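Re: Re: ligand-bound prediction request (bumping)

Still looking for help on this. To restate: I need the protein modeled with zinc ion bound, output as structure tokens. Inputs repeated here so nobody has to scroll up.
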Amino acid sequence: MLEQIANTTRQETAVTDFPRSLVEFQRRFADEAACVAYLVQERWPRGFCCPGCGTGKAWQLQTKPWTWECAACGRQTSVTAGTIMHHSKLPLTTWFWAAYLMATHSNGISALQLQRQLALGSYKTAWLLCAKLRRSLVAPGRAPLAGLVEVDETVIVCRSKNDPLTGGGGRSHQGKILLVGAVEIQDGGAGPGRIRLQQVPDYSAQSLHAFVAANLAPGATAKTDGWSGYPGAPGVRHDPHVVGKMAAHIVLPWSHRIFSNVKVWALGVYHGLRRRHLQSYLDEFVFRFNRRRTRHAAFQSLLGIAAARAPLTYNMLITPEAKA
Ligand SMILES: [Zn+2]
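Reply:
Sorry for the wait, this slipped through. Here it is.
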């Protein structure tokens, strides 16, 4: 049984065309068909286009879910191909809900919370769902920070497996992790732009230069507290402000605010972070912060829809670099 779809010209999805509330979301993505319609619109905004031959005429297969067969060359194309939903046994509505909750919760959501909210059968299912969504957190080829950028370092206290939920490991050097952060300064210091956070083994010039090289665009200006590890980083200007410890929050106000937010967040949502997973949680914080004004983009990134337009990009996503 085949059913032809009309290849009418569709308009590009407007940025504002995104559910603003849970009620609106539930209404819009009430069933599988609604989710498929959204994916089709995102994937083929100007109508179906066969990736094999470029023809626009296709039949939706009744025997395979969410799959179209090209009328010209017979190639079958799934609307979820290239996204993290491909070959999943979970309903699309579950994927959509999970991505929506993750993208819109200002503090993030744990696997346990997700299991309860979506009534998932097992914790393992919820955990895997979270892990797959987290694969989308580091966008491949993301643009490095540019212009004036605060670069600073801090120490985060980690929780070991055996530590109590509060206060463990405070004095032990083993319970501490070194962190470097960078914050774009916009509008002459009025507000932060995008951020980056990276775990580092030490504050040596080698570690700090590697961070700067990976996260700052050539020509950017690194504003630092004058620590000797920063000067000489290739490709960027250095703007050192040598200060005593007490005044650092005045010279580098935004990085200090970000650091303190990370620490509060880590304690509040996760009761402290563990060393083993630290970078993936930092990535999550960065992802959410950098998309704080564009939740629709966060939602699409999480589902891999944005990546589905460029399959190669998705291949890069699933490499270990993405740190699930
Ligand atoms: Zn074709």
